[in-house]
Amino acid sequence: MTKVLYSATMSLDGFIAGPGGDMSWLADHLGGPNPVADDLVGKIGALLTGARTFGGDDPNRGTDKEGAFSGAWTGPQFVLTHRPPANPVPGITFVDDLTSGLEAAKGAAGDRYVNVLGADVAAQCLAAGLLDEILVFVAPVLLGDGVRLFHHPGGTRIPLDRVETGPTPVPTIWLKTRR
């Protein structure tokens, strides 16, 4: 069965992007040995990406590591947006509905993960009870402002269970939702 995973690298103070969606801070924290991240790439069958994430800042732009997972991942990508570009983008399917977009991504992923990229899409999946797991890599940096891993005005409590991954050189938190 295909699982839906939200994965992100987060600053210690809870941000996955800096102010204005700035991802340049992440370049200092990518590329080192990380067995969990390295193993994950081969387990992803498709991406479900938010429009801001798709069109946003890639800390590896212009290098051979540009793209998802520092260029290590290739495959079908579904971008959730109400404003698809006028011209087709090779390898990208634009969808305007979370449920049908996720179903298409699951169909493309087979028995591997659909990896969600983008805080807003992840929050939508979580609210709809469609998210199975969350994987967070904690970077040793404080950003002070930006896009939070999870933001819900007024707050909300979502219980999660820890998934054991063993010792890793990068602080890693792998959780599953209780749905």
Give an overview of the whole structure.
With 179 residues, this protein is of the alpha/beta class. 18% of the residues lie in helices and 27% in strands. The chain contains four helices and ten strands, in the order E-E-H-E-H-E-E-H-E-H-E-E-E-E. The strands form two sheets. An eight-stranded mixed β-sheet has the order 5-4-3-6-1-7-10-9, sandwiched between helices. A two-stranded antiparallel ribbon has the order 2-8. Helix 2 (51-55) links the parallel strand 3 and strand 4 (77-80). The radius of gyration is 15 Å and the shape is globular. The chain starts with a strand and ends with a strand. The mean pLDDT is 85.
Short summary of the structure?
It contains 4 helices and 10 strands; from the N terminus they run ββαβαββαβαββββ.
